[in-house]
Amino acid sequence: DAGVIQSPRHEVTEMGQEVTLRCKPISGHDYLFWYRQTMMRGLELLIYFNNNVPIDDSGMPEDRFSAKMPNASFSTLKIQPSEPRDSAVYFCASRDSDQETQYFGPGTRLLVL
Amino acid sequence: LAKTTQPISMDSYEGQEVNITCSHNNIATNDYITWYQQFPSQGPRFIIQGYKTKVTNEVASLFIPADRKSSTLSLPRVSLSDTAVYYCLVGPLGSSNTGKLIFGQGTTLQVKP
Fold it and tell me: What is the mean pLDDT of residues A53-63?
């Protein structure tokens, strides 16, 4: 298995632009998680899905952030409009409900100018 | 979820054994202790998990005293490639597992030649 796949790996954009981050979980995993990591705040859980349904989005910072999971093999995290304080590394992770381990993707490094 | 406390950073030399202790005074009866490792520019990855006493795998050992209010991750004979951030997490598993992982600041281990 290729593991969790994220794209793009790096994104540089200007303030006010829309940003879409993509994630392909490990095949067969029914949990998908979006995290954000910064030096100041560490690794924060933004939202997670179970069987494509959002379960907990309490970590989503504000309405500018939205996440979707249209099918079991794809999820997006969208920021619109983006702001400089959104600059961070965004990780996607997936898990099988029969196991406890989360598998993380390589992350998307976002820089908003 | 039980809060955890770890040292912010540790230094070691190649070939030494490293022990990282995590405090979790409010651990619940159904909570397990899990450690993740994060290399620079990568997502966290699972190292080891335990409930009580001692667990050992090919990467590390985990020591948990009888009161379970702390745990110690032991890395035998570290090498430069063990330089990473190590996270201690505490939470329920199985049917009680809501899927959420709460990462603290972690311990940054620097292995020197």
Answer: 91
Encoded tokens for A80: 């619109």
Tens of pLDDT, residue by residue over A6-39, are: 999 999 999 999 999 999 999 999 999 999 999 8
How far off is chain A from B86, nearest CA to CA, in Å?
A: 12
Nearest residue in chain B measured CA to CA from A98: B94
Q: Which of B69, B58, B60 is nearest to B33 (CA)?
A: B69
pLDDT higher than threshold 80 for residue A1: no
Amino acid present at A95 = R
pLDDT at B95 over 60: no
- Contacting residues for A53 by C-beta, under 8 A, at least 6 apart: A69
Q: Which residue of A has its CA nearest to B48?
A: A101
- How wide is the angle at C-alpha B48 spanned by C-alphas B45 and B53, nearest 5°? 165
Tokens of A32: 């998908």
Q: Is A55 in Cβ contact with B98 (below 8 Å)? A: yes
